[in-house]
Amino acid sequence: MAKKTVTIDFAKLAGERAEFIKENPWLIPAGLAIQMIPLAMLIHGHVKKNIYKKKLQIEREKTKQLELQYQNDHPHGHHRHHSHRNGGYHNFDPTAPQQL
């Protein structure tokens, strides 16, 4: 089998293209609009990503500040007071008032 060579006449192709555009001038803005839609979506997504990234950084910083503030307010860590009387339970039954 012999190899076939393909020759393209670019001058003829450019002429046909120019003629087609002259016959259908509305294709220029329509083609540009179709190409701009993905670009606009890309830019919009990039801007939104940066906005949410900044919001996340702000919330993380707030969390860090609250943790530091809590640690400063409670320097000994978690310290709970437990009652050792009555097996660790408080008796909340109403009692009669005591006379002084």
TrEMBL record:
Q: Which domain of life is it from?
A: Bacteria
Annotated region (Disordered) at 63-100
Q: Where are the transmembrane segments?
A: 26-47
Sorted alphabetically, which keywords does the UniProt record give?
Membrane, Transmembrane, Transmembrane helix
Spell out the protein name for this chain.
Transposase
Basic residues bias: start-end ranges: 76-87
